[in-house]
Amino acid sequence: MAALLALNNATVLAGGLPILDDVSIEVAEGEMIAIIGANGSGKTTLIKALLGLVSLDSGTVQVEGKQLSSMGAKHRASVMAWLPQEGSTTDALLVEDVVAASRYRFDEPRAVALEAAHIALAEAGAGDLARRYVTELSGGERQRVELATMVAQQARCWLLDEPANHLDPVWRARTLRFLDGKVSEGTTALVALHDVHLLGHVDASRTRVIGLREGKIVWQGQLDHDQFGQGLEQIHGVPFHRMESAGNEFWLPAMEEDLS
Question: What separation in angstroms does the CA of 225 have from each of 207, 228, 243, 249?
């Protein structure tokens, strides 16, 4: 059975230098993948490559064994939903309209789309924002609205680039737990993070980690793998210490005095 999404020997160049360097990954239906690495390691480019938003200098992108380029817009929207680091909506639109618009692939009356938007907003913890204008929202509020658009779109796979961006500590934890819950319901998810301790809020047993460094995959394995700490050192170049709280694992980089 073909993978839901696949990158095959993908390379993306900028100024003649690789920002994604011969990367191959396969994403199975219902899988959670955390893409981790330092800023500039290639995480965003990897996600955009899977979405077809950057051109590959070599390699291919496939969806269910077929070339991504052969898919129409509505078909793509049924498979993939995207949450970028920064929202792109700059017009003074009502939140409910923005979320309803994410359902463009459905042939349905506006009233049905709005009802689905309100349900999605409530699920994402943003129900009170429905009648606000997007331009009036804080960064954290916008991020919650973006999550609601993914819920309303009803795509099979979510690709999220730093989904805890702009959020306070409570909403960071809630967002990762919300994402983990969607995966438990059958949604496929790829989430790019540079803050690795946020992985303490997801189910380690069903989370696969792909670690990037300078555009290459340098480590991959399950989050509950006993060598995950060594993997973090390969990815970031410094040791990490394991901590535990309320039954969850958290990984923190070594203090400067430990590196001397």
Answer: 10, 5, 15, 12
- Whether 245 maps to a domain, the answer reads yes
The contacts found for 179-183 with CB under 8 angstroms, 24 or more apart, are 179/32, 180/32, 182/151, 182/158, 183/30, 183/31, 183/32
User: Which residues make Cβ contacts (< 8 Å) with residue 165, sequence separation at least 6?
Assistant: 85, 86, 139, 143
Provide the whole-model pTM.
Answer: 0.91
Is there a contact between 189 and 157 (Cβ–Cβ < 8 Å)? yes
User: Which structural domain range is residue 229 located in?
Assistant: 5-87+155-258
Whether residue 175 lies inside any domain: the answer is yes
Instruction: Centre a 10 Å sphere on the Cβ of residue 34 and count the other Cβ atoms it contains.
Output: 20
Answer whether residue 93 is part of any domain.
Answer: no
Number of domains, the chain = 1
pLDDT of residue 60: 96
pLDDT at 254: 81
pLDDT at 124: 94
Which residue spans within the chain are E strands per DSSP?
A: 5-14, 17-27, 32-36, 58-63, 66-67, 80-83, 157-161, 188-193, 207-213, 216-222, 240-245, 248-253
| Burial bucket for residue 135 (CB in 10 Å: 0-12, 13-18, 19+) | exposed
- Percent of all residues in the chain with a pLDDT value above 90, rounded to a whole number: 72
Any domain includes 250 = yes
Give the domain CATH number at 55: 3.40.50.300
For residue range 14-40, list pLDDT tens digits in order: 999 999 999 999 999 999 999 999 989
